[in-house]
Write a structure and sequence with these properties.
This protein is of the alpha/beta class and 278 residues long. The protein has 10 helices and 14 strands. The strands form 2 sheets. The protein has an 8-stranded mixed beta sheet with strand order 5-4-3-2-1-12-13-14. Strands 8-7-6-9-11-10 form a 6-stranded mixed beta sheet, with helices on both faces. Helix 1 links the parallel strand 1 and strand 2. Helix 1 runs parallel beside helix 10.
Length: 278
C-alpha cells in the first residue's frame, strides 16, 4: 500500500462539540500510522493550545495557527519547526487599529503566547461555557497560556481572533481589512458573523500543507485533508482528497470531494476506512 498523509483539523473534527475525543478517532489515527501512513494535525489553534491528550494520541507533525506554523516530525519529540509565517508588525498595528475602530474584542495569537484583553477572554469563556465545553481543565489551560493586556505586542503575532455582540462585525472587519488580509468567520463557537479570524493574506492551512508536502516529498495527490469549518477550505480544495465532516459548514462541504459522518459518529474512522488508511 502506498504511503498517504492525512491532515486533520482539531475542533469539530477530532474533538467533538462536548469537548471529547471519540475512541474511534484515536484508534483511526494510531492504526493509520501503524499501517505506514502519516497523520498531521492542521488547526487554527496555536502551539500553546495543543492539549497533551492530542499529543498522546500520536501525530507525525502539525500545521498550526491556521497555516502560520508547521512542525515536521513526531509531535513534540522529534523534528522541529520548519515553517513560521508571522504578520509584519506594521500589519499587526493596522489590524489592531481596525478591530478597535469597529468595537471588536480581539485575541492576538503567537507561537508560544496569546494576548487578550479581559473582555475578549471573558467572551471566549462564555462562548465555550454556552456549548458545554468549559471544563476546569479548559479554564485552567486558557488562563495558563493567555496574557491579559490592553497593550499587546506587535512582534511575534501570527493571527487574531475577534468577537462582538454585533452580527455585522465580520462584515465591518472585512470592509476594513479584506483587501490586504485573510478574514474568515464561523470559527468561534456560537458567534456566527459576530466573530472571526484575521491572518496575513495567503497564509492558510492549504498553502502551508503544500509546503509540508514539498518538504516530505509526498505528491499532493496522496494527501487527504479532513475538516469542518471555513478555515479548512483551502486545504480541502488543494489536497488530493478533501473530506468534510458530517457536521461541516456548507462552505466546507462545497470545497470537499467527499463527506464523512459527524465527529461524534465515527467520522474520522469512517473517512480513513473509506480511503484505505485503516
Amino acid at each position: 500500500m502506498a504511503q498517504r498523509i492525512a491532515f486533520l483539523d482539531i475542533d469539530g473534527t477530532i474533538i467533538d462539540h462536548a469537548g471529547g475525543v471519540p475512541d474511534s478517532t484515536a484508534s483511526a489515527v494510531r492504526q493509520a500510522r501503524a499501517n505506514g501512513h502519516l497523520v498531521y494535525l492542521a488547526s487554527g489553534r496555536t502551539p500553546s493550545e495543543v492539549e497533551g491528550r492530542l499529543v498522546e494520541i500520536g501525530f507525525d507533525g502539525a500545521i498550526l495557527g491556521a497555516g502560520a506554523y508547521a512542525w515536521i516530525g513526531t509531535l513534540w519529540s522529534e523534528g522541529g519547526w520548519r515553517v513560521e509565517r508571522l504578520m509584519d508588525p506594521e500589519r499587526v498595528s493596522e489590524m489592531v487599529t481596525a478591530l478597535r475602530a469597529v468595537g471588536a474584542d480581539f485575541v492576538l495569537q503567537g507561537r508560544d503566547e496569546v494576548w487578550a484583553s479581559q473582555s475578549a477572554l471573558d467572551r471566549v469563556t462564555r462562548a465555550l461555557d454556552a456549548e458545554g465545553r468549559l471544563s476546569d481543565a479548559t479554564r485552567e489551560a486558557l488562563l495558563d497560556h493567555v496574557t491579559v493586556t490592553d497593550d499587546p505586542p506587535l512582534m511575534g503575532v501570527a493571527k487574531s481572533a475577534f468577537s462582538s455582540d454585533d452580527l455585522g462585525c465580520y462584515g465591518a472587519v472585512t470592509a476594513r481589512l479584506g483587501d490586504d488580509f485573510s478574514v474568515i468567520t464561523g470559527t468561534m463557537p456560537g458567534l456566527g458573523t459576530a466573530g472571526g479570524e484575521v491572518s496575513p493574506a495567503g497564509v492558510n492551512k492549504g498553502s502551508t500543507m503544500l509546503t509540508v508536502l514539498g518538504e516530505l516529498g509526498i505528491p499532493v495527490g496522496d494527501a487527504i485533508a479532513i475538516g469542518d469549518n471555513n478555515n479548512d477550505l483551502e486545504m480541502l480544495r488543494l489536497a488530493g482528497t478533501g473530506v468534510a465532516m458530517g457536521n461541516a459548514t456548507e462552505q466546507a462541504r462545497a470545497a470537499a470531494d467527499d463527506v464523512t459522518t459527524a465527529v461524534d459518529a465515527d467520522g474520522i474512522w469512517n473517512a480513513f476506512a473509506r480511503h484505505g488508511l485503516v
